[in-house]
Amino acid sequence: MSGKLLLAKGRVAMNVLRKRPILTIFDVTKLCNERCPMCNIWKEKSVDMTIEEIRSKADELHRFGVGYVFLQGGEPLIRKDIIEIVDAFLDNGIRPTIITNGILLTPQLAEEIARRECNLSVSIDSLVRERFALLRGKDSLDRVVSNVRAVAYLKGQHKGNWSITTTVTKMTELDDVKNLRKFAYENGFMYAIRPYIHVNGTAGKEDERLVYDYQNVIEIFNYIAGKAKEENFFAYLIYQEHIRYIQGNSMPECDAMNYSFLMKETGHLSPCIEFPGIDLSLENFSAQKQQYKPRLDACNCSTPCFYNDAREIGFLIRKKWIILRHMPELLRQMKRYGNFF
User: Fold this and answer.
1) Backbone angles phi, psi at 100, to 5 degrees
2) Which candidate among 101, 225, 268, 319 keeps its CA 20 to 30 Å from the CA of 232?
3) Residue 13 is part of which domain span?
4) Number of C-alpha atoms within 13 angstroms, CB side, residue 119?
């Protein structure tokens, strides 16, 4: 392990102890080749940073103590230099996760990702053509399925965690989820689900066709939680919290500005994807955290969400004693099913 990587891991550990961000959500570009009715992030135009600017930002994030970055959009694979972007973060000890719709995923690109300590998450919300087209705003199911199958030969060879992720809406059916999970495993991917979120409408768009009641989706979350208990206890704990969320229970403190923040395509920083209009400075981060905490707390009370960056890190930290008690089981699961991170 290089000295810079050791330094990066030390800074991440210190940030966890000090309740400072270790995760950046990076909108690599606002451009997208889909028009999902649940998403308000994509734009027709995008003022994206150059690769040189991204390298500079990655260095700043490394010195701040960030250890993880989600490369999302829009659609990040629209960037022809996506591998250079991945390397910019890896060179600074920051582990990237590419979040893509899979339309532009090719074997050549997948091989480059597989060689690196880079996670890959492909969003597929249904294997039913009409439902997929409605949920993604484009009838590209055949292409995405073909792309996933075309990279299945890399199963067991990729250094990062590869997964297929489904957003659960009112339209989601249990049989479809079971088929997606089977499809993911057959092609060397793990499988995860997430609840549909719209809250303030800044990042997630409200669509009455997708808004569910607790009863619409509880069977799906219980099924996946049961499978996760056998295979990935970390995910099982998070699914238990998903169930609390969809039941309408109050949520614990949001992770925004505690363990995560947003970096926009321009390089400007904001507390989270629901507050892109607030500009943050790493130099004055502690003071700004105190300044915006009441506003973030009010958001969490009135319109709680379950975006990954807003919940999962803090939740797992709060569950550390439960995780430690189950560590032998977790280690067995990771030996059998692979690295969850």
Assistant:
1) -135, 155
2) 101
3) 3-211+219-224+255-309
4) 20
Q: Bridge-partner residues for 95, per DSSP?
A: 68
Is residue 12 assigned to a domain?
yes
Distance, in Å, from the CA atom of 341 to the CA atom of 281, rounded to the nearest integer, reads: 28
Q: Tens digit of pLDDT for each residue in 109-118?
A: 999 999 999 9
For residue 246, being part of any structural domain is answered with no
Q: Which phi-psi region, left, alpha or beta, contains residue 137 (left: φ > 0; alpha: ψ -120 to 50)? A: left
Whether 198 has a pLDDT exceeding 70, the answer reads yes
- For residue range 75-97, list pLDDT tens digits in order: 999 999 999 999 999 999 999 99
pLDDT at residue 334 greater than cutoff 80: no
Residue 322 lies in a domain: no
Asked if residue 335 belongs to a domain, the reply is: no
Cis peptide, bond prior to residue 314, ω within 30 of zero: no
How is residue 2 annotated by DSSP? -
The model's pTM is 0.95
pLDDT at residue 333 is higher than 90: no
Structure tokens at 128: 């039913």
Q: Is 81 helix (H, G, I), strand (E, B) or coil?
A: coil
Place of tokens 């249904």: 126
Q: Strands 119-123, 162-168: parallel, antiparallel or unpaired by DSSP?
A: parallel
Residue 67's CATH number: 3.20.20.70
Q: Write out pLDDT tens, residues 136-162.
A: 999 999 999 999 999 999 999 999 999
Alpha-carbon distance of 75 to 39, in angstroms, equals 12
What band does 274 get if pLDDT is binned at 50, 70 and 90? very high
d(CA 27, CA 139): 24
Counting the structural domains of the chain, the total is 1
